[in-house]
Automatic annotation (TrEMBL):
A Pfam family of this chain: RVT_1
Family membership noted in the UniProt record: Belongs to the beta type-B retroviral polymerase family. HERV class-II K(HML-2) pol subfamily.
Name by which UniProt lists this protein: ribonuclease H
Gene3D superfamilies for the chain: 3.30.70.270
EC number(s) stated in the UniProt entry for this protein: 3.1.26.4
InterPro entries named in the record: DNA/RNA_pol_sf, Rev_trsase/Diguanyl_cyclase, RT_dom, Viral_Replic_Matur_Polypro
First-tier enzyme category under EC: hydrolase
MF terms (GO), sorted A to Z: RNA-DNA hybrid ribonuclease activity
UniProt domain Reverse transcriptase: residue ranges: 12-93
Length: 175
């Protein structure tokens, strides 16, 4: 059996309401629970549904839209997307149930040389931006790239001679 793991999204707002994320999320969630909506994922006013076939996704989306229309919500046609195999949701492209890092972000990161100072490190971190959560051991990489043992000295206590920190202290600071 071929599995079609496509998705569909919708962004909506209730008529006559000012947009408050907390209120909006609660109202939509209550309407969907009352209408016994099928499996879906909701974040404030974005909703995503999925299924094995395009027809299944379309039917689920249609049912959720009907539930919300009965609860006095309105939709902009331009905000309804799908069904599709790859779809943007919460600013991220989703494919096969996983977030996909855009190729332009990957190309930009791979084209950069390893940072050698704080300014280059900040530029690198800015390029990574949102995608840092997908990089394994990100915090350790960043702490190592900003660590400069020659510049780190202690002028008080037992090490008052301004010597670089001992190796064991470096490790404890990096954690």
């Amino acid at each position: 059996m071929n599995r079609w793991d496509g998705k569909s999204t919708a962004a909506l707002a209730q008529r006559g309401w000012k947009h408050s994320p907390t209120i909006c999320h609660g109202l939509i969630q209550a309407a969907l629970e009352k209408g016994e909506a099928l499996e879906h994922l909701q974040y404030i006013d974005d909703i995503i549904v999925w299924g094995n076939t395009a027809a299944e996704v379309f039917e689920k989306g249609k049912e959720i839209i009907q539930i919300l229309l009965e609860a006095s919500f309105s939709f902009k046609k331009s905000k309804l997307k799908g069904p599709a195999c790859e779809i943007p949701f919460l600013g991220v492209k989703w494919q096969d149930g996983r977030q996909q890092i855009p190729t332009d972000v990957i190309n930009k990161i791979t084209a950069m040389s390893s940072p050698t100072n704080k300014k280059e490190t900040r530029a690198f971190l800015g390029a990574i931006g949102f995608w840092r959560m997908h990089i394994p051991e990100y915090s350790q990489i960043v702490s190592l790239s900003t660590w400069s043992p020659a510049k780190r000295t202690i002028s008080t206590g037992a090490l008052s001679s301004n010597k670089p920190l001992p190796r064991s202290s470096r490790r404890s600071l990096m954690r």
